[in-house]
Amino acid sequence: MVLVHIVLFKFRADIGDEIKQEFLSQIKTLKSLPCVKSQKLVVGGPSITSSIEKSKGFHYALMSYHEDQAALAEYQASSEHARVTGTYFIPYKEDLIRFDFETDQVDEALLGF
């Protein structure tokens, strides 16, 4: 089983591109945490969904993979995660959506595990 962690980030309207770019740069460093399975963590955006209204105004998405719920909890509790989110997102946040799920073991190969 692999646990998939998805987060959608929405910045306030008054937040400029410089802050958003620094956020992207910093959040990508979390892939080096040992609790991220095979260092697979992807961040992307802005949304290219058509029509853009379907994205509900969210700017960026993160998807990371973890061995199990304990590894995800370790990721969430890490000082690096707290530093990055606390410095580069929380002060500028409008909204956030988090969705975590466990994959079936037969689907792990589709994820490259």
UniProtKB/TrEMBL annotation:
UniProt superkingdom: Eukaryota
Q: Which InterPro entries match?
A: Dabb (IPR013097), Dimeric_a/b-barrel (IPR011008), HS1/DABB1-like (IPR044662)
Domain Stress-response A/B barrel: where?
A: 3-101
Query: Which one Pfam family would you cite for this protein?
Result: Dabb
Q: Which PROSITE patterns does the annotation name? A: S_R_A_B_BARREL
Quaternary data: Homodimer.
The family database entries (PANTHER family) matched by this protein are listed as: PTHR33178, STRESS-RESPONSE A_B BARREL DOMAIN-CONTAINING PROTEIN (PTHR33178:SF17)
| Name this polypeptide is given | Stress-response A/B barrel domain-containing protein
